[in-house]
Specification:
With 275 residues, the chain is an alpha/beta fold. 26% of the residues lie in helices and 26% in strands.
Length: 275
C-alpha cells in the first residue's frame, strides 16, 4: 500500500514492505530532514530555501528488510545526475580487479561474451570488461552521463532498466553472460520487479552480480552518511537471498569487500546453473 503525501506524487510513503508486502514495518530511527541528495548550493545562494525531505529508517519485522519508507522520485534523482565513476580515486583499479574476479568465475565457453551493466554511469566498469574482449552494453537513465559513455564507444541505452529494455537487449545483442548492478541495487524502488526483469534477461549460463553496501558493517562504524534519499535499501545477505529466492534465482557466491565502509558482492544465477 502506498500513501502519497504531496499533490504531485513526487514523494511516496510505503505502509508495507517492498520485499514481502508485510504491513509489519517498524520505525527504527530518524535522521534530520535534508534537501534532496547532491543538491548543493553555491555560497551566493546559501539563503535560498530548499525543500527538506524525511530520512526515516524502517525495518520489516517479517523479512528483515531495512529501508526508507519515504521515497523520492527516481526520475528526480537521475534526470540531472552529476556523479561520474571515473572521478573516484582507485575505482578504475577496483573495477579491473572486479573484471578479473568475475571472468575467472565463468567456466562456460559461450562465443558471444556479453556483459550488461545496469546503472552503468560513464562506462568505467564496462571499459574494464571491454579490455578482456567482452561486448559491452550499459543501461543508464542520466542523459548527460550516458552520452559521455557512448562518446567513449561504450554502447549505452539512456533509460531506466525495465521489461522494455530487456526485450530490446535480447533482440539486438542476445543473452548476456554477465549482468551487473554495482551500487545500484539499493537505489531501486520496486526491487522485486527489477530483479524479475533481470531474470528475464538470463539463461542457464548467465550470472547476475550485485555489488552493494553491506549495512551491518557500515552500521558498526557509524557510517551514517551512506543513508540518504538515493539509497532506498540497506542490505544484509539474508535479505538479498530472500529477494533472489522470491524472483527465482539462487546465490552461487558471496564475498565481503572493502569499498564504501563495507560492501558485499553476490553472484546469483538461475536454478539450472550448475556452477
Amino acid at each position: 500500500m502506498i500513501e502519497y503525501y504531496n499533490s504531485n506524487n513526487f514523494k511516496k510513503f510505503y505502509k508495507s514492505c517492498r520485499v514481502c508486502n508485510s504491513k509489519e514495518i517498524k520505525f527504527v530511527f530518524r535522521l534530520k530532514k535534508t534537501p534532496f541528495e547532491d543538491h548543493f548550493v553555491k555560497k551566493n545562494k546559501i539563503n535560498v530555501v530548499q525543500h527538506l525531505h524525511p530520512l526515516d529508517l524502517y525495518l520489516c519485522r517479517k523479512c528483515g528488510y531495512f529501508h526508507l519508507a519515504h521515497i523520492l522520485s527516481p526520475k528526480a534523482s537521475y534526470t540531472h545526475y552529476l556523479y561520474q565513476s571515473e572521478v573516484t580515486i582507485n575505482l578504475k583499479n577496483h573495477y579491473d580487479q572486479f573484471a578479473n574476479y568475475i571472468n575467472n568465475k565463468l567456466k562456460n565457453n559461450r562465443k558471444n561474451k556479453l556483459i550488461v551493466d545496469i546503472g552503468s554511469n560513464d562506462g568505467t566498469l564496462l571499459s574494464a570488461f571491454k579490455k578482456k574482449g567482452y561486448k559491452v552494453v550499459g543501461v543508464e537513465p542520466a542523459k548527460k552521463i550516458s552520452s559521455l559513455a557512448n562518446k567513449k564507444f561504450i554502447k549505452t541505452y539512456n533509460c531506466f532498466f525495465n521489461t522494455k529494455i530487456v526485450k530490446k537487449i535480447l533482440k539486438i545483442h542476445g543473452v548476456p553472460n554477465i549482468i551487473t548492478a554495482n551500487y545500484v541495487y539499493a537505489n531501486i524502488e520496486n526491487i522485486i520487479q527489477f530483479t524479475k526483469d533481470v531474470k528475464s534477461l538470463m539463461d542457464e549460463k548467465s550470472i547476475f552480480v550485485i555489488q552493494t553496501g553491506y549495512h551491518p558493517e557500515q552500521m558498526k562504524i557509524k557510517m551514517f552518511d551512506y543513508i540518504y534519499h538515493e539509497h532506498f535499501s540497506y542490505f544484509s545477505v539474508n535479505v538479498i537471498s530472500k529477494i533472489l529466492q522470491i524472483c527465482g534465482l539462487k546465490i552461487l557466491d558471496v564475498k565481503k569487500i572493502k569499498p564504501k565502509g563495507g560492501s558485499i558482492r553476490i553472484i546469483s544465477a538461475l536454478p539450472e546453473n550448475k556452477k
